[in-house]
Write a structure and sequence with these properties.
Length: about 500
Amino acid sequence: MLEKGKRYLKKLKILRSLKARLFLIILLAGIVPCVIMRMAILQNYEDRAVNVRIADVQNQFKILANHLITYGYLHDTSSEVVNTELEQLSNVYDGRVLIIDQNFKVIKDTYGISEGKTVISEEVIRCFQGSSTTNYDSGNGYIEITTPIAGSSAEKESGVLEDGTEKLAEGVLLTSVSTDSITMTLELLDRRALIVELIVLAFIVALAFVMANLVTAPFERITQAINDVKEGFNDEQISVNDYVETEHIVDAFNQLLGRMKALDDSRQEFVSNVSHELKTPLTSMKVLADSLMMQEEAPIELYQEFMTDIANEIERENKIINDLLSLVKMDKKAADMNIVQIDINELLELILKRLRPIARKQNIEVIYESMRPVTAEVDEVKLTLALSNLVENAIKYNKPKGWVKVFLDADHQFFTVEVSDSGIGIPEDAMEHIYERFYRVDKSHSREIGGTGLGLAITRNAVLMHRGSIRAESKEGEGTTFTVKIPLIHPVG
């Protein structure tokens, strides 16, 4: 049943609204103090009115007690003066008066129904000991007061109570006073306070509504601005600086918007570059084919030359497509990686064995140096592709009779592979762009050697998928060093 109630509350969107919650908070913050104040005022009035009535009654009945002693009323109840006074006090206070003698017997009852009866109670006993008592019964609407009747001869004639204590009073006045007038006044005050409270409540409701709207207005402006961006009416950064919280939200959204714009620009640029890179070989092949078709009796040597060029363009197209497929695979999540424990020394030796024939063609020396045996948890295919790209680039973008050095080292947590060369180097202003897709430092030289501009992008993605890092240092005309650092144990999660 409780779960059903929770599910039902979740469906009520208004209860999840910030504006509704602020409205309720302000409303409660205004109403609760009003209710507490009204109750406190009424309680304070009631307590004070009861205390005043008690003090007034006690004063009157102390005087009466003295008269009872003076006229010897405890021994003779025929005194008209005392009887008249009792009747007047009973009428004034709308109450009942009982006079109890030392034997706990009622010798006088203004109601005339308890005379001759015995009254023994804690209040009466305490009063015989000389202590007046008061008891306010708000439920039944009366105040019960006991007043000791003691004269100058009380100590001489005092008896002993059942508990052994000495009687200090000759008798007790037990008085019940009505509080109907106090109750009526309380009801009148309560009605008036309720009217005032309703007026204040109406004002608080209006104030809560206005304040809730004012407080949530900046968030509604943020929502509207985000909707405008979503619908395409606006692509500028939004600004709502009413609160620190809205500034944080707006800053986060603007950063996200900037990231989305950068990704969109990157995607458009990527599509444009892909289209251009794929179209260039096709255009070359079409030009070569058209040239052959326009020559009716072209020699066989020309056909062989043109067909060789067409085959080279096809090979270049195929390489671009393969690199694109590799890049797409690199963009997948790390969960798709096939992590195994391999010998990094053997992996590097195998890579260099495959690439040394290319180096020998350009008369470039390839040097491999390892400081220690290294075993690590990696994706062999992806890491091989990344390191092969670095070594192949070092060979291709090198100088004649140059050198390429591959250095392997490790500590307790990472292994490091450095690939350095004596090549043409990378200009300083190009360093921040080298990992961008299709970016080439020397486009003419890249075309000559068949570069696609995707190798370093693939390498960087492969390294990042291993939770590693790659750093490049270069000086134009002197060479380049790439440093790859990868954990020995592949992080989980």
